[in-house]
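Work Package 3 (structural annotation) set out to generate three-dimensional models for the target panel prioritized at the project kickoff. During this period the team completed the workflow that converts sequence records into discrete structure tokens, so that structures can be stored uniformly alongside our sequence database. As a representative example, we reproduce one entry of 210 residues exactly as it appears in the project archive.
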Amino acid sequence: MEVPQINLTNQPHTNTKTMTKKLIILTLVSVMTFACQTKNTETPVEHQHEMPMTDTTQAKAKSPLTAAMANVGDNHVHISYSAPSVRGRLIFGGLVAFGEVWATGAHNATNINFDKDVIIEGTNIKAGKYALFTIPGQDKWTIIINRNWDQHLADEYDPKDDVIRWQVTPTKLTENVEQLTFEVKAINENEGQITFKWSDISFDFNFKNL
């Protein structure tokens, strides 16, 4: 922006008051020109468009979906479950009520899949996928294998769909297990064992290939 040139020496009829006024105008124009140039040469501020990380996106899932599996002979046994953690809570008799059907995990019902027919507690179970429910008790637990494997928690549980239910005596652990855990292991080429551990409780049961 060009600064207008005002020739004060070639104006013989200009009085002192007029000259003073023109000097003020010249000064104001100069200041405005400098401010305009300064503004145009400033580096533009870059705006941050990234969304801040929230607690939800930073934190891990509290009950992650996980699995336990093993091959027992030619039978692949696979358990899929969501594994909650204790996080300082009273679990059995607190978060998980005694005497009520439990999904044996969080979110959807824990499910178990057998590639081959098996026998559990004298009952023949066809190859396929099932829900694995439990009813925790202070002294005894009831284990349930149910045909309706795809359901949220035990919301749709119906005993009419039970393939088998039986009781086990749980073991009291000396050391707490923070995160719910299943384990499948082969005893030999024809027999396997499934173990559950969480908080201060553990139980297991065996199955045999047919």
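Helices lie at 16-41, 55-58.
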